[in-house]
């Protein structure tokens, strides 16, 4: 995870600040972004999939491409997932509508 955050930090333009939204996964610890001065973490409250944009993406992928199917094998799964993902990212408005949130909610301990 630190390597991923390092890449985000490196790609963030000088004078800008990146915010990464994380769910409650065990490796998403509170101090994970401490070493980056241009990066902050917003941790979602427990049991709040409606606030996690990626949950909306997974739901759309399942509903429109991946649910109620059987696959012949690994390559068939990879092909189906690739087609589903490419379909999703080809519609910029859909990506924005599923991933946008009007406000970010922070919780503190």
UniProtKB/TrEMBL annotation:
GO molecular function terms attached to this record: endonuclease activity; nucleic acid binding
The keyword Hydrolase belongs to this UniProt entry's keyword annotation: yes
Domain Tc1-like transposase DDE: 3-76
Native source species: Shewanella psychrophila
Protein name: DDE superfamily endonuclease
Coiled coil: none
Keyword Lipid metabolism part of the UniProt annotation: no
Keywords of this entry: Endonuclease, Hydrolase, Nuclease
InterPro entries, sorted: RNaseH_sf (IPR036397), Tc1-like_DDE_dom (IPR038717)
Superkingdom per UniProt: Bacteria
């Amino acid at each position: 995870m630190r390597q991923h955050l390092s890449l985000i930090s490196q790609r963030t333009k000088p004078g800008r600040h990146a915010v990464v939204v994380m769910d409650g996964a065990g490796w998403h610890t509170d101090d994970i972004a401490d070493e980056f001065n241009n990066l902050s973490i917003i941790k979602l409250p427990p049991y709040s999939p409606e606030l996690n944009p990626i949950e909306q993406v997974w739901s759309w992928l399942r509903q429109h491409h991946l649910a109620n199917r059987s696959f012949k094998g690994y390559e068939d799964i990879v092909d189906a997932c690739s087609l589903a993902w490419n379909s999703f990212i080809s519609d910029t408005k859909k990506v924005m509508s599923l991933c946008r949130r009007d406000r970010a909610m922070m919780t503190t301990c």
